[in-house]
Amino acid sequence: MNGHLEAEEQQDQRPDQELTGSWGHGPRSTLVRAKAMAPPPPPLAASTPLLHGEFGSYPARGPRFALTLTSQALHIQRLRPSDSAAYFCIYTYPRGRRGARRRATRTFRADGAATYEENRAEAQRWATALTCLLRGLPLPGDGEITPDLLPRPPRLLLLVNPFGGRGLAWQWCKNHVLPMISEAGLSFNLIQTERQNHARELVQGLSLSEWDGIVTVSGDGLLHEVLNGLLDRPDWEEAVKMPVGILPCGSGNALAGAVNQHGGFEPALGLDLLLNCSLLLCRGGGHPLDLLSVTLASGSRCFSFLSVAWGFVSDVDIQSERFRALGSARFTLGTVLGLATLHTYRGRLSYLPATVEPASPTPAHSLPRAKSELTLTPDPAPPMAHSPLHRSVSDLPLPLPQPALASPGSPEPLPILSLNGGGPELAGDWGGAGDAPLSPDPLLSSPPGSPKAALHSPVSEGAPVIPPSSGLPLPTPDARVGASTCGPPDHLLPPLGTPLPPDWVTLEGDFVLMLAISPSHLGADLVAAPHARFDDGLVHLCWVRSGISRAALLRLFLAMERGSHFSLGCPQLGYAAARAFRLEPLTPRGVLTVDGEQVEYGPLQAQMHPGIGTLLTGPPGCPGREP
């Protein structure tokens, strides 16, 4: 053939009818004339094959083709050679030369058998065995390794704050989180939150039987909403058992830092921390989580998984909100500014000491690990219809569109009002040349407005007065911290404002900060309570009294990055492990935060409820050996 078709004209003895038609298009179309005695058959549809066959190519070593001829086109399809092999793929996230994790894949071809079915079974055996080992599932000693060994993939509800982490939360979720959990075979739905308390409202009306876990892709604030929403349901006793997880995409990622340490990873920030926590989530496994019930001055109650802060820590947290665009660097800038304008706050701290004290926090270089582990292997649930809210995107190709709803620091002793049992104060040599204590110094002769006077000025007595033009938020409750009317009763707490039982310890004086923390981390890179565990049933109280210099306070926070601040021997630093506490600020103005969110200022009290929640942590790691 020379690029066109040739046809021979057909003639008949009886020219009763003449039909004219053409094949193809353009000047090379072939004209066919025919004469027939009877009416012609109905015309063929344009897609009806006229001829079909398989052909080799020239030269002979080229590929084979399938040709299909219709009335209007010649379809040519390249045929793949016959292959009975099967394949399985392994996804890894090793560290590169610069320490960052990068996704790597290795695909293996199972071709040792003669048939595809046998090769596919072999590939499935290897994939199943690897998955069981990664998720801590037992393998049969002599039995057959089949996919039936694997439980039903857990169904996760992902809640994403698209504005978290300098606005990178959705981009990181789309580019890193969703591909990883899809490759791990997890089933998920995704919803983007649109406003404050949106996550709380969602979980309050959620059909919990449809889900095996709720995972927030944001900072600590979104998980605070989720937990308080679960505990504000009429069925809170069952709802609080819903496993929750966190994938850090915010500026404050304290709980994720504790999860990262529990999993055996080196300290990490940013995208590396997100990848570490995502890997742990994919491997499966949960851990009991203590929750702190906090009763505020108005009588409203909320639940905390992280911390209650007053003084320097809460000042930095709230006043650095205006630098949120800097991400986690806002806390560094806020700390510098807070040191420059350091204040003391007079108050009263009372606590119920723990029956069994935890290991001393002084040798804080090696951190003890959690001793128990719960494996998240939910029982198979019958398939059910999901409401329109839960439109799955787990099977859609990535990248995904942006949906609104998708299945995407005085050396003097602190005055003590009543002391029934010792409050452990850490003492020792502290400070050195050039460490001026933060207390009124009559020897300062520099003018008040000079830089030197500003550097060595004493701590202001009382809370900072925030001018209206400063742009800082006034000390009013944050809308994100809502009151909870349900949840477990606080049997250790008398009504706020009434006398405390005699077995409580009470301290009164001037404080630079007071921190009540549940897990080990105050930030992704700040280990405030290195000996704390998710389920130790304790609230760890740390305070810094007045008289500490700015340089000494800065050294405390620098040492906190390694969890070694208790070994510095700072006499102003105090610590106690408690089951409940009451904080009564005696300074008229200040800032109180719960899990980093501002609450109403005034007296509050709190009780620890051990292990009532479940945190998706992944398997525990081995100290000194990164998984």
Automatic annotation (TrEMBL):
<dbReference type="InterPro" id="IPR017438">
    <property type="entry name" value="ATP-NAD_kinase_N"/>
</dbReference>
<dbReference type="InterPro" id="IPR050187">
    <property type="entry name" value="Lipid_Phosphate_FormReg"/>
</dbReference>
<dbReference type="Pfam" id="PF00781">
    <property type="entry name" value="DAGK_cat"/>
</dbReference>
<feature type="compositionally biased region" description="Gly residues">
    <location>
        <begin position="420"/>
        <end position="434"/>
    </location>
</feature>
<feature type="domain" description="DAGKc">
    <location>
        <begin position="151"/>
        <end position="298"/>
    </location>
</feature>
<feature type="region of interest" description="Disordered">
    <location>
        <begin position="1"/>
        <end position="28"/>
    </location>
</feature>
<dbReference type="GO" id="GO:0005524">
    <property type="term" value="F:ATP binding"/>
</dbReference>
<dbReference type="GO" id="GO:0046890">
    <property type="term" value="P:regulation of lipid biosynthetic process"/>
</dbReference>
<keyword id="KW-0472">Membrane</keyword>
<dbReference type="InterPro" id="IPR016064">
    <property type="entry name" value="NAD/diacylglycerol_kinase_sf"/>
</dbReference>
<dbReference type="GO" id="GO:0034248">
    <property type="term" value="P:regulation of amide metabolic process"/>
</dbReference>
<dbReference type="GO" id="GO:0038036">
    <property type="term" value="F:sphingosine-1-phosphate receptor activity"/>
</dbReference>
<protein>
    <recommendedName>
        <fullName>sphingosine kinase</fullName>
        <ecNumber>2.7.1.91</ecNumber>
    </recommendedName>
</protein>
<dbReference type="GO" id="GO:0046512">
    <property type="term" value="P:sphingosine biosynthetic process"/>
</dbReference>
<keyword id="KW-0808">Transferase</keyword>
<dbReference type="GO" id="GO:0005737">
    <property type="term" value="C:cytoplasm"/>
</dbReference>
<feature type="compositionally biased region" description="Low complexity">
    <location>
        <begin position="435"/>
        <end position="455"/>
    </location>
</feature>
<feature type="region of interest" description="Disordered">
    <location>
        <begin position="373"/>
        <end position="482"/>
    </location>
</feature>
<dbReference type="GO" id="GO:0051049">
    <property type="term" value="P:regulation of transport"/>
</dbReference>
<keyword id="KW-0418">Kinase</keyword>
<dbReference type="InterPro" id="IPR001206">
    <property type="entry name" value="Diacylglycerol_kinase_cat_dom"/>
</dbReference>
<keyword id="KW-0547">Nucleotide-binding</keyword>
<dbReference type="GO" id="GO:0042981">
    <property type="term" value="P:regulation of apoptotic process"/>
</dbReference>
<dbReference type="GO" id="GO:0008481">
    <property type="term" value="F:sphingosine kinase activity"/>
</dbReference>
<dbReference type="Pfam" id="PF19279">
    <property type="entry name" value="YegS_C"/>
</dbReference>
<dbReference type="GO" id="GO:0012505">
    <property type="term" value="C:endomembrane system"/>
</dbReference>
<keyword id="KW-0067">ATP-binding</keyword>
<dbReference type="GO" id="GO:0016020">
    <property type="term" value="C:membrane"/>
</dbReference>
<feature type="compositionally biased region" description="Basic and acidic residues">
    <location>
        <begin position="1"/>
        <end position="17"/>
    </location>
</feature>
<dbReference type="InterPro" id="IPR045540">
    <property type="entry name" value="YegS/DAGK_C"/>
</dbReference>
